[in-house]
Amino acid sequence: MASTSEILTAERILAATEEVLRRHGPAKATVVDVARALGVSHGSVYRHFRTKAALREAVTKRWLDRTSGKLAVIAAASERDPEARLWDWLAALFEAKRHKAGDDPELFATYTVLTDENGAVVGEHIAELTAQLTGIITQGAGSGTFSVSDPAAAARAVFQATGRFHDPCYAREWTRPGVGEEFTAVVDLLVRGLR
């Protein structure tokens, strides 16, 4: 149990919530369990997150933001060739999702349930990712690397075309033999289409 002398922050609550979700799953995890793990009253948790739904939404956003934050670094590296950045960004997205699914399958299953509950958070996450892709493709169009008239539409198409490699509904396929080669073939086709 955590020391009650530590300042209770939203970040501490979210970290504890993730542990409680890992232990109990989304169906059984409660705000009382989170408070107990922190050594505080459930009212203290509610002062930071007004409802259980708000807490679950925040922990889902935190989980998704880990991926988008790593990808933002790649997207922002504007001194690099846009084609190489696009490849790196898509590979990093695939790898991040594969790690989330493979390294902690119970937590991944929990977050799959939470993302289904929090469609707005998922929509924001997808909008952020496609905005990052749009930035890469816009720079590529500006430099002549890519020949597209609507970078935002192209970014949405690339994101949708690679869904098999980042949409959680395909997680079981991500460890299949040959999936890496299939990823490479799809991205190669898309990059050639952008040129």
Write the SSE topology.
Blueprint: H1 10-28, H2 31-38, H3 42-48, H4 52-76, H5 82-103, H6 105-117, H7 119-143, H8 151-161, H9 179-194
Structural account:
- The chain has 195 residues and is mostly helical.
- It is built from nine helices and no strands.
- It has helices spanning 10-28, 31-38, 42-48, 52-76, 82-103, 105-117, 119-143, 151-161, 179-194.
- Helix 1 (10-28) packs across helix 6 (105-117) and helix 5 runs antiparallel to helix 7.
- The chain is elongated and about 60 Å long.
- The mean pLDDT is 92.
The dominant shape is elongated
Rg from Cα: 19 Å
Count the helices. How many? 9
Number of strands: 0
Q: Summed up, what is this model?
A:
This protein has 195 residues and is mostly helical.
Brief descriptors of the model:
195 residues, mainly alpha
